[in-house]
Amino acid sequence: MGSINDTPLALDFRSDTVTQPPEGMWEMMRAAELGDDGLDGDQTARRLEEETANLLGKDAAIYLPTATMANLLTVLATAPRGAQVITQINSHLYSAERAGSTLAGVLYTAIGGRQGELCLDSLADILLSVSGPSIALVCTENTHNDSGGIVLSLDYSRRLYELCAARGVPVHLDGARIFNASVALGCSAARIAQYADSVTVCLSKGLSAPGGALLVGSSPLVRQARLLRKTVGGTQRQTGILAAAGLYAIRHMSARLAEDHRRACMLAQGLRGLFPSAQCDLPDSNIVLLDLAGSKLASRNVVDALAQVGIQARARRESRTRFVTHRHITDASVAAVLARCIDWAREF
């Protein structure tokens, strides 16, 4: 078998980050108006920031290389040294990004909860506690990556936001896939963002931009983040080439995410039929988790079996395999996965 780079994107279920720009996006990139974003600003980047802020109903936005940087800058701009940042125990911020707490000098405190939610009773207890470091920020994630792209309900988001607001604690939403959540809930991204003081948006997942993210929030927060951006190596120069891809992404790429969700459901339904005793919930969005806990098969077996016929997936923990649908995945892609699974499903 060839290298991963030889794998057709239509058979690459590892992540929606593998997506490549459509032709219209390339055209906008080639025609982008450029400036120096580290000096007096890049015109295209500023246009992207303004449009994204308006789209989410916030005052301002800052364009950044990655969503991880956007989350980190939120912490740096919001939480004084020695304070606590509260997040869900399986969140990306905690499981993959918490090394940033050493730079920020804060304590990331994780609390449990079902299906990507922070337990509101536990959160209330922490917010009311008079012992321990002060709480500077509460972070949520929607959609929730580790929980299989679960979408947090508007009602839950409202209750969490009101609970935090009553104690004067701001809420940050890691909305790397906020447009997937918007499509799944059938509402605007602004309706989701209204229950957060700041929001991270990633452009390089299902929206198919080759890179980039935004931090969206109040004007004071964004001004502070812009000052801190150089500290974390985030200053860019003629970044309008990538920002143009972001503009195309937010203008044209969100509505089609429903196709990814439909194919994820197709895949999950097929896997449930092949592995009836496995756990494979029907997804809210575009992430499918197949959990073979208790069987003699491990996630590595699944990934290796698919790789033999040129299909890429990812092992997540010992028993869990993750499949992510995106714009290059077709109905035929889903059928190819299920056809390969039939060959060894009897071993389960």
TrEMBL record:
Which cofactor does the UniProt annotation name?
A: pyridoxal 5'-phosphate
Residue ranges occupied by any Aromatic amino acid beta-eliminating lyase/threonine aldolase domain in the UniProt entry: 12-290
Q: Name one Pfam family in it.
A: Beta_elim_lyase
Q: Which InterPro entries match?
A: ArAA_b-elim_lyase/Thr_aldolase, Low_specificity_L-TA-like, PyrdxlP-dep_Trfase, PyrdxlP-dep_Trfase_major, PyrdxlP-dep_Trfase_small
Instruction: Please name the GO terms that the record assigns under molecular function.
Output: L-allo-threonine aldolase activity
The modified positions for N6-(pyridoxal phosphate)lysine read: K205
Q: Which GO annotations describe the biological process of this protein? A: glycine biosynthetic process; L-threonine catabolic process
GO CC terms: cytosol
Assigned keywords, A-Z:
Lyase, Pyridoxal phosphate
Q: Which family does it belong to?
A: Belongs to the threonine aldolase family.
Q: How does it assemble?
A: Homotetramer.
Q: What is this protein called?
A: Threonine aldolase
What organism is recorded for this protein?
Advenella kashmirensis W13003
